[in-house]
Hints:
Radius of gyration: 28 Å
Number of domains: 4
Strand order of the largest sheet: 3-2-6-7-1-8
Largest sheet: 6 strands, parallel
Structural class: alpha/beta
Distance between the termini: 52 Å
Number of helices: 31
Amino acid sequence: MPLSRLNPEQYKAATAPYGQNLIIASAGTGKTSTIVGRIAYLLSRGVEPQEILLLTFTNKAAQEMIERVAAFFGKQIASKVDAGTFHAVSYRWIKRFEGKVVLKQPRELKTLFRSVYEKRSFHHLSGDSEPFGANYLYDLYSFYQNTEMKRSFEEWIAYRQSEHDIYAMIYADIVDEFEGLKKQYGFLNFNDLLIHMRSICSEKELGYKEVLVDEYQDTNALQGTIIDVMKPPSLFCVGDYDQSIYAFNGADISIIGTFDKKFPNAVIYTLSKNYRSTVPILSLANKVIAFNERIYPKKLEVTRQERAQPPKLLVYDELFDQYHAIARLIYESKTEHSEIAVIFRNNSSADGIEATLRELGLPCRRRGGTSFFDSKEIKAILDIYVLLINESDMMAFIHLLEYAKGVGSATAKEIFAALQKVGSGSLLYGFFAPDISISNPFEKRKLNTQLGLFDDFLELGSAGRFGSLGLEAKFLKNPVLKHPKLTKDGAKLLHELYVLLRSIHGLKQPRSIVKKISLSSFFASVTDVLSSKRAQLADGSIDEKLKNESKERIYRKTQVLLELSKPYTDHERFLNAMILGSQDLTQGEGVNLLSIHASKGLEYREVYVVDLMDGRFPNRKLMSRGGSLDEERRLFYVAVTRAKDILFLSYAKYDKIKKMNFTASQFLYEAGLLKEDESYRALLQKEEKRDRET
């Protein structure tokens, strides 16, 4: 029984009376065991498994906990516990009540958002600030959805950044049109899952007797409102305010900080025994995090009493000297590669470490940078697949046609709408059997200067200008080829897409479709564009050797996707696994290269925290954009508490490429690894000045 394995603190928390309970679980104190113990306690008290909801930060964490429950109660009972991330659980409920869900990744919706944004002009306004770009405005709107529950987007912009008040009406209209298009095509993004879930919870009784929330410190306002409208009879929240590191994504530390004020009868439990790290490592972590304000009192105790190696500071004259030296230390280490982690604050740090490790022939796996599923070649294959299964997916089409020279998102969107028009509402019919009696399938844009919309009359061209490209005669008759801004490269790519869709239409197996796509002339064109771009030199010429190497890497990735598709026989299950589950999948083996955010919840015998220079860590640039020193300090705390036995902290004094001198991070001073000097006092003065200005 899981409860028999808990220490007294964990047992007391796991068997807490029904009500509102908050468990402060610091790094390495056994929060997973406590949550599993709580589920076991609920089941032993007669609560049905389907009456328990477990909300976790990753689906992998949920799976691990349910597997532990299954070890005692059996898979049949454990599988009935509703467990997963806020998004995964929301997805399941929306499917149950609303049917088919077309889930889109942020980068896909950015393409749609950009196509709306490009129709606007801000030139008739004379503000003190330049208007936000399309991608930044999209991110800002996403942040707004996660954090603001009262104001409209227009009001929020005006309140948050008054210098953009003059553009706020146009921004809001872009958002309104964007939301209208999403509704028209049935698209949902991750925020929409939560917004729909909140509506479901406010209208229906879901039947949960207790809701358990893991990583409660990283809950944002939108997620918080879901729990509020759900009104569970019992709430069991587990978190640690010292590990709240997702403010950039809307996480609100005040949610955990005000738990006892929101619920006057709440009971707060603290897990204080650390089972992970040695005394010197935990002592260093506690020394630094103590500089942050304490929300709830806590004091960590170390259970490991063996002799331990103290954390070691590594100092190097030059940035790449640091990377080479750390790679050499790892090469000579007796620790298994899978038990070594290099943790970084900035992606550029990971690039340097990865390159030097590979020079020594050391395998490594990287998380927190560009993942396998974020690579453009894999996205292109999945976009084609999506278009075959859901021909209304405008973003997939736009994203694909943008690989043609001279074709932007606005033009691609107009061609998509035209294909639907000549296909009587069907994109595939628009390709395969277009109504050629429609001579002009393109609509004139409306005029509204107040909202930045200007007339852009489309003067039709002739499909005959593409006759020399060797396209099929039947395809040449398609009215959409009359778009005046469609380039020859665009017409050729459009034809290749037409041929590909025709060849995979009707195939039933995901593996067969992925294979056909990867071998198609369309994907060959995409590969050529990507490999040329990646092999382009500073003078604009293409290095053919680099291009061929890039093509080989793209080919290897398609083979990985083929392997991933093997277990699936259903299109929707395959696509949703690739879209919703891709965050938990990693590629490669060997030394772990992790961003601090990706390292959360993990532990390793030997850890290197690199580039501890002021400006890089703490990251002053991100702090100036709304971050804080407290958040950077929490990131440092998370990084060092990943280490079980061996911890190295490193920094360099100079970057010869950028010709830049560095000062050591103030966290190294706070940890007692460096003695206070003029550099440290200068850092403190800089911080005091920043506090006064904000």
